[in-house]
Amino acid sequence: MFSTSDTIVAIATPAGRGGLGVVRISGPAAAPVAGELAGREEPFRPRYATFATITPAAGDAASAVGDQVVITFFPTPHSYTGEDVVEVSAHGSPVVLSSLLRRAIDAGARLAEPGEFTLRAFLNGKLDLIQAEAVADLIDAVTPLQARVAFDQLEGTLTGAITAIEGDLFDVIAKLEASLDFPDEGYHFVGSEEAGAALASLGDRIDRLLGESARGRLIREGAQVAIVGAPNVGKSSLFNALLNANRAIVTAVAGTTRDLVTERADLGGLSLALIDTAGVRETSDPVEREGVARTRDALRVADLVLVVLDGSREMGDEDRGILAETAHLPRVVVLNKSDLKGSGIFSIAQGVLGLNWSATSTQAGPGVEPFAENAPQHRESRLGRSGKDPRPLFSVSAQTGAGLDDLIAGVAEALSTGGIEFRDQPAVSNVRHTALLARARGALARATEALEGQVSEEFPLLDLQEAAHALQEITGRRTSDDLLRHIFERFCIGK
Ligand SMILES: Nc1nc2c(ncn2[C@@H]2O[C@H](COP(=O)(O)OP(=O)(O)OP(=O)(O)O)[C@@H](O)[C@H]2O)c(=O)[nH]1
Ligand SMILES: [Mg+2]
Do 115 and 153 belong to one domain? Predict the structure, then answer.
């Protein structure tokens, strides 16, 4: 399905105006196409910046556009795609760039499909599948941590770890196969104990990678964090303060927010979707009632809930209700308005949460009985953790900003047990990789069982081969057209 014999062209820089814009050409005719653009007979010197003037061509208006450009020729195989590649750096005007594109097509190139440059790099062995996917992740990264994880995968750390596991697995398979081919020798090539130990160590290595996958996925995909609470406690103010922007309307009127307001935020290195909600209360206003229903929808999808209480007043029934309603969810309780004189709500909240946790300013209160519905039954969140957190209570002022840094650190910590900073262990961040690792792990476990049962060498072999195939699918040593189409679809044209 993938043709790689023709020459493709695309604008590689984002749509819109810029100082520079780049048109990329790849394929056997890349240099002749560029030569025709530049009206130049002599060959381009490889990997040198060549200044050229594109003269307005006679003909239709689209071709009557000229520019001064820099052309760089990367001959095969030392190029991004592994083919002959030419990059034309022009001025970043959409008119100039589309004219260049049009003229390259007239000269025999074809408009590239989304991701086709990277697909060719994969097909030509310049990148494995993990690295190709990392290119898309790096381009999509919005936080430094996302970029770091993607770059690391592009550099091949994850590929290295998986290839090493696959190599050692292959070794066990080869020995077991040899034992099969020479049955008289029995387990001569590998004792079942030795094979068992090798499989156990491979299983441990896969487990370590899988153990990092929740963190990796959190970094790559971010999380949804809903801000909920009674009316007027300062949810929208906190939302704005965390975003550092005046995004949501704040007024002294209870019931100001009537709908969900969602905004992306980079908090503590994580890309979060922060959701401001309508204050939860009984109301006869149909609009507000719909808003409250939407708040409950947000609670269902959130990876973490910030329950906001007004620390300057007594805890009310609405506060108690929302605390009970979120007791089984992964949550952090925020006492807002710390700039105002407190009411002792801090110690009450601690009691409600059933905590023996003392804050800097307030000592634990006399322990209010938890509500009946408040029994600590923590659900597993989508990130695969329990909602229990060692620091569930924070005191902040959305107005002055006091305590916000601490809260942000607490949110990152609550989302990822043990913090989300970069570690030496390669982070498996892609769900496809995680699923295949889990499949390999399952097959290894079955092989180990078969080996211990001493049924025959054949049984563990089938499972071991399945494990090996799963690992090869991660790096792309085994692939299908469907899989490639699926992966490269998410690229934009020109990548
Ligand atoms: N002193 C003080 N006032 C605050 C603080 N945060 C919010 N407020 C005030 O509390 C009032 C309500 O703030 P909002 O952010 O609109 O509260 P909300 O929870 O979004 O309210 P609804 O959308 O109506 O549910 C406003 O008058 C804010 O100025 C704070 O940290 N300190
Ligand atoms: Mg509001």
Answer: no
